[in-house]
Design a protein that fits this description.
Elements lengths: L2 H15 L13 H10 L5 H14 L3 H5 L3 H8 L5 H18 L5 H4 L7 H10 L10 H9 L8 H11 L5 H14 L18 H4 L5
Helix pairs in contact: 1-11, 2-6, 2-8, 5-6, 9-11
Length: 211
């Protein structure tokens, strides 16, 4: 089966499985909060971020408040999150950037924000600006390779591959659905191939001894 044919099947099946998939980070519709939450989500679950951020928003409701925050006080609020010390530095600097410059509306400009890489930039483009976005997190990276959508292993190259085969108006939701499927079925260590409705077209599932 050609990759293009497999892609069509995957798109349709994921639509059936997860029609309402969406961003799991809670940001109350405030763009700067999404920036901060996405920076905090690196190598940490969205659930862990959502547990920590209400206290952060309460103490620092605006970008100005956070930009002027005492580092040790911010760290105290985020100590349950992985790499919280490094992330504290990033979100304080990011808040200062946003306070001074506002929120850019292109990936090229978004990645100039401290702590923001292409993954975060794509999240913002899709969620805030409603533009086609390909967010390659650990789930999308893993599933793209397993499902034969990309032979690459770096997020930027996988993003490039996915942009070629996923229609622009499908890209944002496709990534949400891939992330959901990765969380619920196609786990990193023990994927549930026996219950996966994509197993018959999944190269990884079809290989003997492969996950």
């Amino acid at each position: 089966m050609k990759r293009e044919e497999r892609t069509v099947i995957i798109l349709e099946e994921l639509k059936k499985l997860y029609p309402d998939a969406n961003c799991q980070l809670e940001y109350q519709g405030m763009p700067h909060r999404l920036v901060v939450a996405t920076i905090l989500s690196a190598q940490t679950t969205d659930a862990a971020v959502n547990r920590a951020t209400p206290a952060l928003w309460k103490k620092y409701p605006t970008t100005r408040d956070l930009a002027l925050g005492e580092r040790y006080q911010v760290e105290e609020l985020l100590k349950t999150i992985g790499l919280f010390r490094n992330k504290t530095g990033f979100i304080i600097k990011a808040a200062a950037f946003l306070e001074e410059n506002g929120l850019p509306d292109t990936i090229a400009e978004l990645v100039k924000i401290p702590g923001v890489g292409r993954k975060t930039a794509n999240v913002i483009m899709g969620e805030i600006f409603k533009q086609p976005s390909v967010t390659v997190d650990t789930h999308v990276k893993r599933l793209s390779v397993r499902l034969g959508l990309s032979k690459n292993t770096t997020p930027e190259k996988i993003e490039r591959d996915l942009r070629k085969i996923i229609p622009p108006d499908e890209q944002t939701m496709f990534c949400h659905r891939m992330i959901t499927h990765g969380r619920q079925v196609c786990h990193a260590r023990k994927p549930l191939c026996s219950v996966c409705t994509l197993r018959e077209i999944c190269p990884a599932s079809m290989k003997k001894g492969s996950p």
